[in-house]
Amino acid sequence: MSQQPAHPLPSYLDPQHLGPWGIYLQQVDRVTPYLGSLARWVETLKRPKRTLIVDVPIELDNGTVAHYEGYRVQHNTSRGPGKGGVRFHQDVTLSEVMALAAWMSIKNAAVNLPYGGAKGGVRLDPRNLSQSEIERVTRRYTSEIGVIIGPSKDIPAPDVNTNAQTMAWMMDTYSMNEGATATGVVTGKPIALGGSLGRVEATGRGVFVVACEAARDQGVPVEGARVVVQGFGNVGGTAARLFHEAGAKVIAAQDHTGTVHNANGLDVHRLLAHVSRTGGVGGFGEAEAIDAETFWHLETEFLIPAALEGQITKANASQVRAKILVEGANGPTTPEADDILRENGVYVVPDVLANAGGVTVSYFEWVQDFSMFFWSEEEINQRLERLMREAYSSVALVAREHNITLRTAAFVVACTRILQARQVRGLYP
Ligand SMILES: NC(=O)c1ccc[n+]([C@@H]2O[C@H](COP(=O)([O-])OP(=O)(O)OC[C@H]3O[C@@H](n4cnc5c(N)ncnc54)[C@H](O)[C@@H]3O)[C@@H](O)[C@H]2O)c1
């Protein structure tokens, strides 16, 4: 009998270029020692449950036919239906969609939502297509993946280059094929179609809530604390506003248009108005412009990367002078930077926990769609805050027990929940 390698790779991936899936596999290997007897099931996490590749042909406005490659990956559904976004991007690959689906399994389990993890994508550049071409792609893609999605099977949501309108087309296409209106097949829908109040602000609000919990743990008062935010869009803008309203001082903000700094604290409401008027923080009058690299070296209580992945690297991590770093963006810190931050005593709240507010309110949207009964924004925010606080405290407890980072602890909590479900369900047949 030949020896099995540690995790035999699927034949459809190139072992020399594993891409994001390779990073995810390393993360699973890192938590395996903390899984106790559940480690027996860990191979389950190293294979997506279901991978669907579809051809998406559409007629372009000029009468020719174009074909696009589409994916839907369900990484794990042990704890509930698949849940995860759909992105439209010319560089989407299967490895990337597999990893994003796996990270959704982790995020959903870390926050204890009754979902597995899934993700979808179509390889296209939406800037090269008209609105009606994008609508045709969306509808054909939805029809093609219709065999595996559904309100109790797998529930897509918006991601990069998709939005509430995309979700409305997906919901309509699925409903037409089923012959019944199925609002619960996607989340992130327009309010007029069963969308949820509070969804737009949910991720930024979740970032703020877990930041406050981390601050309490670290003995840092939020009132009067300095806050530095990269990205002043949906996530960063909302988090900055909530910090400002809680009496913290947002001393610097950076986006694709520039970096602004005011040691006495920026007036966040006026900065938000400036961003909506001009498209970015650059040129804001009540602050000084500083260079992009200085931004990462500012002394601050909170640093919130809420823009892009890969921003804190081994090149700048050793100069970070923040007490608490809360990851609003997905993957803003590279693994090497993570080790440097830990050595320097920076307390990092990882993305899978910190930015889970969005999927949490997506869960509320789905629950409201099922019950056909809609909650007030106040109820939604209260429930969101409770779930985020509970998620933070169970991850922080595991981090303390094992003396590990919150990132490793979030993976331990999530993998434990997924594999416990796997174990009690048993193997079919
Ligand atoms: N919106 C959500 O519900 C949600 C949920 C989970 C995770 N996230 C993640 O949060 C991040 C931000 O998402 P969002 O919804 O706020 O997006 P957004 O488009 O509203 O805002 C993005 C911000 O990033 C800034 N930015 C872009 N390029 C930049 C650059 N080169 N340097 C500095 N800043 C730059 C933009 O100027 C903008 O302020 C992404 O990583 C996203 O994946 C978002």
TrEMBL record:
<dbReference type="InterPro" id="IPR033922">
    <property type="entry name" value="NAD_bind_Glu_DH"/>
</dbReference>
<feature type="domain" description="Glutamate/phenylalanine/leucine/valine/L-tryptophan dehydrogenase C-terminal">
    <location>
        <begin position="196"/>
        <end position="426"/>
    </location>
</feature>
<dbReference type="Pfam" id="PF02812">
    <property type="entry name" value="ELFV_dehydrog_N"/>
</dbReference>
<feature type="binding site">
    <location>
        <position position="83"/>
    </location>
    <ligand>
        <name>substrate</name>
    </ligand>
</feature>
<feature type="binding site">
    <location>
        <position position="203"/>
    </location>
    <ligand>
        <name>NAD(+)</name>
    </ligand>
</feature>
<dbReference type="InterPro" id="IPR033524">
    <property type="entry name" value="Glu/Leu/Phe/Val_DH_AS"/>
</dbReference>
<feature type="binding site">
    <location>
        <position position="107"/>
    </location>
    <ligand>
        <name>substrate</name>
    </ligand>
</feature>
<dbReference type="InterPro" id="IPR006097">
    <property type="entry name" value="Glu/Leu/Phe/Val/Trp_DH_dimer"/>
</dbReference>
<dbReference type="Pfam" id="PF00208">
    <property type="entry name" value="ELFV_dehydrog"/>
</dbReference>
<feature type="binding site">
    <location>
        <position position="234"/>
    </location>
    <ligand>
        <name>NAD(+)</name>
    </ligand>
</feature>
<dbReference type="GO" id="GO:0004352">
    <property type="term" value="F:glutamate dehydrogenase (NAD+) activity"/>
</dbReference>
<dbReference type="InterPro" id="IPR036291">
    <property type="entry name" value="NAD(P)-bd_dom_sf"/>
</dbReference>
<dbReference type="InterPro" id="IPR006096">
    <property type="entry name" value="Glu/Leu/Phe/Val/Trp_DH_C"/>
</dbReference>
<keyword id="KW-0547">Nucleotide-binding</keyword>
<comment type="similarity">
    <text>Belongs to the Glu/Leu/Phe/Val dehydrogenases family.</text>
</comment>
<feature type="binding site">
    <location>
        <position position="362"/>
    </location>
    <ligand>
        <name>substrate</name>
    </ligand>
</feature>
<feature type="site" description="Important for catalysis">
    <location>
        <position position="159"/>
    </location>
</feature>
<dbReference type="GO" id="GO:0006538">
    <property type="term" value="P:L-glutamate catabolic process"/>
</dbReference>
<keyword id="KW-0560">Oxidoreductase</keyword>
<dbReference type="InterPro" id="IPR014362">
    <property type="entry name" value="Glu_DH"/>
</dbReference>
<dbReference type="GO" id="GO:0000166">
    <property type="term" value="F:nucleotide binding"/>
</dbReference>
<feature type="active site" description="Proton donor">
    <location>
        <position position="119"/>
    </location>
</feature>
<protein>
    <recommendedName>
        <fullName>Glutamate dehydrogenase</fullName>
    </recommendedName>
</protein>
<dbReference type="InterPro" id="IPR046346">
    <property type="entry name" value="Aminoacid_DH-like_N_sf"/>
</dbReference>
<keyword id="KW-0520">NAD</keyword>
<dbReference type="InterPro" id="IPR006095">
    <property type="entry name" value="Glu/Leu/Phe/Val/Trp_DH"/>
</dbReference>
